[in-house]
Design goal:
alpha/beta; Rossmann fold; 12 strands; 43% helix; globular; binds nicotinamide-adenine-dinucleotide; binds 2'deoxy-thymidine-5'-diphospho-alpha-D-glucose
Length: 335
Amino acid sequence: MRIVVTGGAGFIGSNFVRYVLGEHAADEIVVLDKLTYAGNLDNLRDVAGDPRYSFVQGDICDPAVVDRVAAHCDAIVNFAAETHVDRSISGPDDFIRTDVIGTHVLLEAVRAHGVGRFVQISTDEVYGDILAGASVETDALRPSSPYSASKAGGELLVLAYRRTYEAPVVITRSSNNYGPFQYPEKIVPLFVTNALDGQPLPVYGDGRNVRDWIYVDDNCRALDLVLREGRDGEIYNVGGGNEVANLDLTRGILAELGLGEELVRYVTDRPGHDRRYALDCGKLRTTLGWEPQVAFAEGLARTVTWYADHRDWWEKIKSGEWRRYYERQYRDLAI
Ligand code: NAD
Ligand code: DAU
């Protein structure tokens, strides 16, 4: 199968590329990525010499480049997105552009070229927060942030293309991923790398917001299954089944590094901060036989070790654009 992976130079996309090339000897992958601040060719360095892999730098909102890559592929897996909730609050424009309009450009290419499968990578955040129980795929969408509203908008276009044009689409909604190559703006890599440098860990609000954590390899295995065996028009939740409050996550990271809580700082809460997400993944389990394999304690230990062993990867990132963003976002820390 020849697969176009958009956003393949980001966190989950690069892990997915590695996973597919490792599992499917006959597959070819073309990564289409704009290389925004979050895209990084270092994430793909180990596959760069593989003859089955190629890279095109381009924007999913640009119909010309999308048309060129879509013309010769069997499937498109769309990871490309603006992904950080805090950045969507300070500047939503790029989110609406990439996550909504970019998805539309891709769907038009699917239609024009008769692409056999389109996988839209979405998020549990489209459900909004849920204080008890777990979200199922048929629940209403109640996104809270400009990020999650843009992702919901992208999804609705995907579903409209199914209904109207019978496009061969599937959607996944996953919970919070963690693992190697995650840009150090998200809580896990930010806190691990700050702790390694003896810098403060800025916990929003009371630290009691809950996220469900999934090790990135478990998500990649689910996405690969959905790509090959998912039913057209279906939506699949993909969660790790690990509900953890932010403060407990923070303590877990510090414990892995043998540190106490001296670095923890409570800072101003995120506006509109969703309190809790939880996913019911029964559909993926019963229809495609997927189960997460990496226990949270094991995944966190692996992740902390990876960042400790790959200072060269994140020290390069934590300068220029990253530093300007950090100083803007975490003004409280300077007080
Ligand atoms: P990321 O921010 O690490 O990477 C995003 C990638 O998309 C980058 O390589 C970037 O350069 C590229 N990109 C951005 N705009 C583009 C554009 N206009 N054209 C082409 N490429 C563009 O993101 P991630 O965390 O790997 O997330 C990947 C996908 O998974 C996203 O769609 C996100 O909404 C979804 N998702 C992420 C998580 C998570 O926990 N990280 C959970 C659920 C869903
Ligand atoms: O749930 C899936 C989503 O998970 C994905 O769709 C998003 O792309 C991804 O970024 C992630 O969104 P979150 O907002 O949950 O991730 P983040 O790492 O930004 O925050 C996780 C929790 O930690 C959240 O409750 C806010 C809190 N937090 C985050 C940061 C960056 C802090 O307390 N301090 C911080 O500095």
